[in-house]
Amino acid sequence: MADETARTITLIVVDDHPVVRDGLRGMFESAPGFEVLGEAADGVAGVDLATRLDPDVVLMDLRMPGGGGVAAIAELTRRGARSKVLVLTTFDTDSDTLPAIEAGATGYLLKDAPREELFTAVRAAADGRTVLSPAVASRLLARVRSPGAAGHEALSAREREVLELVAKGTSNREIAAELFISEATVKSHLTHIFAKLGAKDRAAAVATAYERGILG
Q1: Can you list the positions of beta strands (E) in the chain?
Q2: What is the DSSP-derived secondary structure letter of residue 142?
Q3: Distance of alpha carbon 147 from alpha carbon 150, whole angstroms
Q4: pLDDT digits over 68-113, tens only?
Q5: The Cα angle at residue 69 between residues 79 and 102, in degrees rounded to 5
Q6: What angle do CA 154, 199, 88 make, to 5 degrees?
Q7: Which of these, 29, 193, 202, 209, has the minimum number of CB atoms within 10 Å of its CB?
């Protein structure tokens, strides 16, 4: 593709409140570079819609009657869906944040996020970069140095550097340029980081690292 920044990002909205769905659709359709393919009112319908329409990003609420967001995220992960899931919710408690990220969400934002922050987050999620709102990052930081940190293999200094850049939403290519290493080496470091932290993707690795006090 000649200009990657010019591509249109496709998304679906999964939320049980019609007013929220309408608001998000209107917001994204009024901005260049986005296309809303559809909406769903619960997690089960959201999984079906994402499977059929294959959007770049799924904006997912968490607490919905008829099928919650965490179960839907886990199902999309199980199916190997290409779509990245960006949680957009009013809840930032530990019991909501960590399960969503561990289930496979690429990012986690609160519904009071400013319009431009939401647009930036969707673009980052579409690129596979981790997105955590400041409020959610603070929740994770509050859990640092937990007893669960003991007994896990330590990250090397370079692995910590890579993980810190991942936490800032830096792409593999950007990490390689910043650390003067190849993208293949970055991927190798990430493989080791995931194994050491017991994480299956970038977002889960960042969440686990905050939880164990490796980051922050």
Answers
A1: 9-14, 34-40, 57-60, 84-89, 107-110, 131-132
A2: T
A3: 6
A4: 899 999 999 999 999 999 999 887 666 677 788 888 899 899 888 8
A5: 65
A6: 130
A7: 29
